[in-house]
Amino acid sequence: REFVTKDNYKDYPHLKKFIDELCKLETAKYIGSKIKKDLSKAYVRVEIIADRVGFWLKPHCDIKEKLMSCLLFANPDNYESEELGTDFYDKNLKLVKTVPYKNNYGYVFTSGPDTWHGLEKKEIKRDRRCLQVNYVTFETDWKVN
Fold this sequence. Notes:
This protein has a single domain, classed as Jelly Rolls, CATH 2.60.120. The two termini are about 25 Å apart. Strand 5 (about 85-90) and strand 6 (about 95-100) form a beta hairpin. Strands 1, 2, 4, 7, 9 and 10 form a 6-stranded antiparallel sheet that branches. A 4-stranded antiparallel sheet has the order 3-8-5-6, with no helix packed on it. It has 2 helices and 10 strands. The radius of gyration is 15 Å and the shape is globular. It is α+β, with helices and mostly antiparallel strands.
């Protein structure tokens, strides 16, 4: 896992363009209107993820400082199973939905006390590639302006 920062963004020129767009006040206001959150003073955080064999993530709710979470799946050759998508749970931690792990597919949600999600123990053949995009309240290298 690697965050895109001012130290490494030149390695990811297309992601830097994406980050620049997310940092535009107009973009943040538009997204904020859809999720009913004020993102005008937020920071953007983008993480490149390649979960390996044996990875799993117990059910949890995101910290309140994560105003918005978005996971975009990258499974271009459909090598990995669609079952590798994020699992969502009810308040009793009963699995209610698995978002399919499909190329260029993803989801968005906001943090809250009832936003339980994780990844059950599943077979990962090679790696589970994703791009995580967050608007957060804490400082990162990328401020909305």
